[in-house]
Amino acid sequence: MDKIDARNVNFYYGNFHALKNISMQIEEKSVVAFIGPSGCGKSTFLRLFNRMNDLIPDTRLNGKILIDGNNIYDKNIEVDELRKNVGMVFQRPNPFPKSIFENVAYGLRVNGIKDKKFIADRVEETLKGAALWDEVKDKLKESAYALSGGQQQRLCIARAMAVSPSVLLMDEPASALDPISTAKVEELIRELKKNYTIIVVTHNMQQASRVSDKTAFFYLGEMIEYNNTQKIFTNPDKEATQNYITGRFG
Ligand SMILES: Nc1ncnc2c1ncn2[C@@H]1O[C@H](COP(=O)(O)OP(=O)(O)OP(=O)(O)O)[C@@H](O)[C@H]1O
C-alpha cells in the first residue's frame, strides 16, 4: 500500500480553482519533490497533507487524500493526531523563543508528557537524528535564537520529529539558508528518508535532483508530470516540463 494516495484532488480559494484534479501516490520512506513556477499550487497541495488549509476561510476541497489507507478528510479524523503524524517545516526557520532543549521538548509537553527522563532522552535522540546533537549538546539551555539560521532550521526539523511523525512536509526548507547550511539540510533529508516519508517543495532544481526519488512538476494548478526524479531531469515526457527544467520559463 502507498503511504500517501491523493485521488482527484480539487481545491478552491473562494471561486479560484487552485488545484485541478490531482492524483498522486507516494511510497513509504521516499522523498518526493514538488517543483514548478511561483503560484502553481505547490504549497497549497503540500498543506493539504496535514490539513493546514483548514485554517484558511472560504476554501473547499474535493477528492480524497489517504495516508496509511485512511482518508484524512473523514469526519472522524482527529486533526491534532494527524498533525502529530504529519509534521511540517517552513521556509524560514521559526524556532520558539525558548531554549534549544525546550524547542524540541515542546511537542512532548503539549502532549501531556511529564516524565523528565523520558523527555531528556527523547530530546537527545531527536537532536542526534537531526544531526545537530554534537553542535548543541553543550548549550541546550541557551536560546534557540543563538544558533545560526541553518542550525535553527535543523532544530525546527528536530522539533517536528520529536513527536514521532511518519511524514514530514517541507516547504522550501533551505531557501533562506547559505550554501553550506543548505548542503547540511539536504544531507539530513537524505538521511531522514530511512525513517520518514518526505515531501519537499523547492524552487531549486539541483536540490530536487539531489534529494528526491520522485519529482512532480506543477503548472497553473495542474500536476503536469510525476515521475522518477532522474527521468524528470533527463528525459521528461512533457514539453512543459522540459521547458521548465531548462529554464525557459518560471
Ligand atoms: N490564502 C490564499 N487565499 C487565496 N488565494 C491563495 C491563497 N494562498 C494561495 N493562493 C493562490 O493559490 C495559487 C497557488 O498558490 P501556492 O502558494 O500554492 O503556489 P506555490 O506554487 O507554492 O507558489 P510559490 O512557489 O510562490 O510558493 C496562487 O495563485 C495563489 O495566489
UniProtKB/TrEMBL annotation:
Coiled coil: none
UniProt keyword list: ATP-binding, Nucleotide-binding, Phosphate transport, Transport
Taxonomy, superkingdom: Bacteria
Record-annotated ABC transporter domain positions: 4-245
GO molecular function: ATP binding
Pfam families: ABC_tran
InterPro entries: AAA+_ATPase, ABC_transporter-like_ATP-bd, ABC_transporter-like_CS, P-loop_NTPase, PstB-like
Xref: NCBIfam families: 3a0107s01c2
This protein's name: Phosphate ABC transporter ATP-binding protein PstB
Annotated organism of origin: Coprobacter tertius
